[in-house]
Write a structure and sequence with these properties.
The chain has an eight-stranded mixed β-sheet, with helices on both faces. A two-stranded antiparallel sheet has the order 4-5. The model is unreliable at 254-262 (pLDDT under 50). It has helices spanning 6-18, 69-74, 94-101, 117-130, 142-157, 176-181, 228-245, 249-253, 256-260; strands spanning 36-40, 46-52, 58-63, 80-82, 91-93, 134-140, 162-168, 188-193, 213-218, 221-224. By secondary structure, the chain is an alpha/beta fold. The protein contains nine helices and ten strands. The protein has a single domain (6-260), classed as Alpha/Beta hydrolase fold, catalytic domain (Rossmann fold, 3-Layer(aba) Sandwich). Helices cover 35% and strands 21% of the residues. InterPro entries: AB_hydrolase_fold, Fungal_lipase-type, Sec_MonoDiacylglyc_Lipase. It comes from Vibrio variabilis. This is Lipase. Residues 60-203 form the Fungal lipase-type domain.
């Protein structure tokens, strides 16, 4: 597995943050003037943004996490369903599958038979793939879980079309069969930050498992593939003792430059 470079991490993190904005002025970030397409959810709200540059082979699909009460309720659908509609031979989180298969309805679209989210996304990606581009999927929270599902579905339909998958604060989305058959583990980077409780969800050990390489941002360092129990234990312990940690001399030493400047 190749390393995720710092500039790549920062790029995807910024885009995931911007995905929650009502409008993303993509040209400010170097994308082509016509290098943005939006995939809408059933309410006509932006769910995904597809971004690209004309002179670069990478297309970036940015997926935001739950952003309405209905999606938050879908997160509670903890049972798993077969993802045959995506041509996957394993089961995934029912709520995430419902988000992927919901109708994609732009506000100006009055079609009586709208495409679902995956179909709308594939229609956008198909001509870009035919022009030699490859796709990076990135997302935050449930958007990260959906990114993994969509990436694997696309990769199984068009081999070598996915460049990488980078997620932030992602919950798990499938079980043992998913982990066994997921084809992009060597290209998937799952970034967790300190005690982000969502990264431990759903709270069903053994029923839900993670895939890819975990990068844990903790105490100013990056740890790779830290076991869940160790990560949870360290995080809870850190949270309990945090008020006392501010008494350490290291907290005072870090501020010495403040005095040196005066």
């Amino acid at each position: 597995m190749k390393k995720l470079k710092r500039y790549q991490y920062e790029k995807y993190a910024v885009l995931c943050n911007l995905a929650y904005s009502r409008v993303l002025k993509h040209t400010r970030y170097g994308f082509a003037p016509k290098g943005q397409r939006i995939v809408y959810n059933r309410f006509g709200q932006p769910m995904m943004r597809v971004l690209w540059k004309n002179d670069h082979d990478e297309v970036i699909v940015v997926i935001k996490g739950s952003h309405n009460p209905q999606d938050w309720l879908l997160n509670l659908h903890l049972w798993q369903r077969k993802a045959h509609c995506l041509k996957l031979n394993y089961s995934v989180h029912s709520g995430y599958l419902q988000q992927i298969t919901q109708p994609s309805i732009a506000k100006q679209d009055h079609s009586p038979h709208p495409l679902n989210v995956y179909q709308a996304l594939y229609n956008i990606l198909q001509p870009l793939l035919e022009n030699g581009k490859r796709v990076t999927f990135t997302g935050h929270s449930s958007g990260g879980a959906i990114a993994c599902i969509l990436a694997d579905a696309l990769e199984k339909q068009r081999a070598k079309s996915v460049k990488r998958v980078v997620t932030f604060g992602q919950p798990a989305f499938g079980g043992f069969m998913m982990k066994k058959q997921y084809s992009l583990s060597h290209k998937t980077y799952r970034i967790c930050c300190d005690l982000d409780i969502v990264t431990f969800l759903p709270p069903l050990p053994g029923v839900y498992l993670h895939v890819g390489k975990q990068l844990w941002l903790y105490n100013g360092k990056i740890y790779e593939n830290t076991p869940t129990l160790i990560r949870l234990g360290r995080s809870v312990a850190s949270w309990v003792i945090r008020p006392f940690s501010y008494h350490l001399m290291s907290k005072y030493i870090r501020n010495k430059d403040f005095f040196d400047e005066r």
